[in-house]
C-alpha cells in the first residue's frame, strides 16, 4: 500500500509536469462547463477508476480505461488527461503499437513488470523494462507500445497526458481495419494479398 501511495504521488507530480508542456488551446475562463450545468464539487470529481487501479483486465488480454474530457467534462480546457492500463499475463497482455497525436505520454507502473518502447523519426527503437514505481516518457506523436513482461501475473500502469483529448491511433487497426485496398497494403508491406486479407480479417473480427 505504501508503494502504491508513493506511486500516486509521483504520478501527480508527473501529470503537473506534463501540463506545462500541454498542447491544448488556452481558455479565457477558469474552467469550462457544459450548457445548463451548475458546477459544484461533484463536477470536478471522477470516481470511475476505483475498479481498475489494480489487478488484470477481466475477460480480455488488455484494457485501457480513459479519463479524457469525454469521460470527465471538467477536464475540458485543462490540458491534462490520463488512462489506466491493465495487462493480462503474457502472452496476450499487449498494448499494440500506437501513437497519440496531441500529447506526449508519461507512464508509471503501479503493479507488475512492463516492457515498453518507442521508435523515433530515424527508425531507432528505444526500449526499457519497467517495474512498479518506474516511469517512462513516450514523446508526442511517436509510435510506441507496452507489453506485460510476466507470464504469471498481471500488470497495471497509469499514463498522464498533456491534453484532455490526446487521441489514440492504433497502427494495426488503422492500417488493416480502415478499408485501405489490400493491393496497396500488399505492395507497401512487400507481401501478397492473401496474407493481407488474413490480417484484415483478424483485425475486423
Summary keywords:
205 residues; alpha+beta; 21% helix; globular
Structure, explained:
α3 (182-188) crosses α4. The protein has a five-stranded antiparallel β-sheet with strand order 1-2-9-4-7, covered by helices on one side. It has helices spanning 2-19, 171-176, 182-188, 193-204, and strands spanning 62-67, 81-87, 94-99, 105-111, 113-119, 125-131, 135-138, 143-148, 155-161, 169-170. The protein is an alpha+beta fold and 205 residues long. It contains four helices and ten strands.
Q: Give the end-to-end Cα distance, rounded to a whole number of Å.
A: 40 Å
Our estimate of the beta-strand percent is 25-35%
Helical content class: 10-25%
User: How would you classify the helix and strand content by structural class?
Assistant: alpha+beta
* Mean pLDDT over the full residue set: 90
Report strand order across the widest sheet.
Answer: 1-2-9-4-7
Strand tally is 10
The dominant shape is: globular
Low-confidence segments, given as residue ranges, are none
Along the chain, the helix and strand elements come as HEEEEEEEEEEHHH
Reported for the largest beta sheet, the result is: 5 strands, antiparallel
- Please give the count of helices: 4
Radius of gyration: 19 Å
Amino acid at each position: 500500500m505504501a508503494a502504491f501511495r508513493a506511486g500516486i504521488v509521483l504520478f501527480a507530480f508527473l501529470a503537473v509536469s506534463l501540463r506545462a508542456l500541454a498542447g491544448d488551446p488556452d481558455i479565457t475562463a477558469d474552467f469550462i462547463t457544459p450548457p445548463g450545468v451548475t458546477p459544484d464539487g461533484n463536477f470536478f470529481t471522477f470516481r470511475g477508476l476505483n475498479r481498475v487501479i489494480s489487478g488484470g483486465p477481466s475477460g480480455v488480454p488488455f484494457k485501457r480505461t480513459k479519463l479524457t474530457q469525454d469521460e470527465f467534462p471538467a477536464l475540458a480546457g485543462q490540458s491534462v488527461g490520463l488512462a489506466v492500463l491493465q495487462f493480462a499475463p503474457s502472452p496476450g497482455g499487449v498494448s499494440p503499437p500506437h501513437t497519440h497525436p496531441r500529447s506526449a505520454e508519461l507512464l508509471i507502473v503501479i503493479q507488475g513488470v512492463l516492457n515498453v518502447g518507442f521508435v523515433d523519426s530515424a527508425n531507432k527503437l528505444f526500449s526499457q523494462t519497467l517495474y512498479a514505481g518506474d516511469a517512462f516518457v513516450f514523446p508526442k506523436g511517436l509510435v510506441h507500445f507496452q507489453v506485460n513482461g510476466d507470464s504469471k501475473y498481471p500488470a497495471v500502469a497509469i499514463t498522464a497526458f498533456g491534453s484532455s483529448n490526446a487521441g489514440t491511433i492504433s497502427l494495426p487497426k488503422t492500417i488493416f481495419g480502415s478499408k485501405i485496398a489490400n493491393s496497396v497494403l500488399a505492395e507497401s508491406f512487400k507481401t501478397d494479398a492473401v496474407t493481407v486479407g488474413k490480417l484484415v480479417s483478424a483485425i475486423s473480427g
